[in-house]
Design brief:
Elements (H helix, E strand, L loop, with lengths): L3 E7 L7 H16 L3 E7 L1 H4 L7 H17 L8 E4 L5 H10 L4 H5 L2 H12 L10 H15 L5 E4 L4 H18 L7 E4 L28 H9 L18 H9 L2 H13 L3 H27 L2 H30 L2
Parallel strand pairs: 1-2, 2-3, 4-5
The chain binds tryptophan.
The site of tryptophan has 13 residues, from β1, α7 and β4.
Length: 332
């Protein structure tokens, strides 16, 4: 059976929190385990360059940090093709070729760029103030990422759907000139079904500053859990698990038997302090092993590098001959 190719890029950004894990990383890792899929996940470091331009050490740490995070959480590099975008030079040749098939108007309509232009207009600045060409061309590089690997399915968040559509447009445009070459990728929206509540009960999100970092040390973890909002019911009062942030978080990390028992304790009356201790135990139990693995990897960047370089070699088994074929069609 030919496996279906799925591919997605991971932009290295700051500290990853438990909400990111539940909403994005966990579903992606589960998708990769499905037999009918060949998953390719890569670190979109050149995409990050459109915004992160001032500190080489920070850039390296972020890139290594996401790699270590995914590996620590169980990404199996034997099963998933896992590399750094910057280690696959064919992507950048592809990027240029595709840029010659991308009308400028199409990219003017890309939402990230459009939003900046709108903001600039409101502030009566030059419409392109603060826009570098990397940012403007972002969707083309993303199309190169996708098309060069004959990707069939792209799991993405809603905000990236337009980019996958642009990749389809560019594929069609090339195919019209040179005949069937690129597959038209489809997107698969990763719904944020697992919306993990944050410290204040709203969705856990960096912008609300209510997050629990994925690899928080035990003391810090306990401290953050102690901050979670509760009501002022006395310990002996029966409590409603349905409206309790603590309970919802507990349910994500505890076994079904533990959840059942906790429910009963809520009914009988349990103090919030007690629930917080129990929540710490189950969260820490979940985090412990990946946290150790994460720190091991981060203290050995050569190991991360080796894994990613091997991944890039696997990716290039596809990208080198395919790029060659594309160039021949063009007439190089
Ligand atoms: N733009 C994506 C994001 O911000 C990251 C990305 C880069 C990507 N290249 C990709 C996602 C290719 C899917 C496919 O999240």
């Amino acid at each position: 059976m030919m496996k279906k190719s799925i591919l997605t890029g991971i932009k290295p950004t700051g500290q990853i929190h438990l909400g990111n894990y539940m909403g994005a990383i966990k579903p992606a890792l589960e998708l990769a385990k499905i037999q009918e899929f060949q998953a390719t996940y890569f670190i979109a470091d050149y995409h990050a360059l459109t915004k992160m331009q001032n500190n080489a050490q920070e850039f390296r740490d972020l890139s290594n940090g996401v790699a270590a995070t995914w590996l620590a959480l169980g990404l199996n590099p034997e099963q998933v093709i896992f590399y750094r975008q910057s280690d696959v030079p064919e992507i950048f040749e592809m990027n240029w070729i595709l840029s010659c098939f991308a009308s400028k108007g199409l990219l003017n309509r890309a939402h990230a760029y459009k939003a900046i232009v709108e903001d600039n207009k409101k502030l009566e600045k030059d419409p392109d103030f603060g826009v570098n060409m990397g940012l403007f061309n972002y969707p083309i590089l993303m199309a190169a990422d996708i098309l060069l690997f004959k990707t069939q399915v792209v799991p993405v968040g809603k905000d990236q759907v337009q980019h996958v559509e642009i990749a389809r447009d560019l594929a069609q445009s090339f195919n019209r000139h040179y005949g069937e070459t690129f597959l038209l990728p489809e997107y698969k929206i990763q719904e944020d079904t697992a919306v993990l509540p944050g410290l204040d009960g709203r969705k856990m999100s960096k912008s609300y500053q209510n997050t629990i970092p994925l690899f928080a040390e035990p003391k810090k973890l306990q401290k953050l859990i102690n901050k979670i909002k509760t009501d002022s019911l006395p310990p002996e009062a029966p409590k409603d698990p349905e409206t309790s942030i603590l309970f919802r978080l507990y349910a994500e990390f505890a076994s079904s038997q533990e959840v059942q028992e906790m429910k009963e304790q809520y009914g009988n009356g349990i103090g919030w302090g007690e629930v917080k201790k129990e929540l710490f135990l189950v969260m820490n139990r979940f985090i412990e092993e990946p946290r150790t693995k994460y720190h091991e990897l981060m203290s050995s960047p050569e190991t991360i590098d080796k894994i990613l370089k091997e991944g890039a070699e696997k990716a290039r088994v596809m990208s080198v001959p395919f790029l060659q074929e594309i160039k021949e069609k063009i007439g190089f």
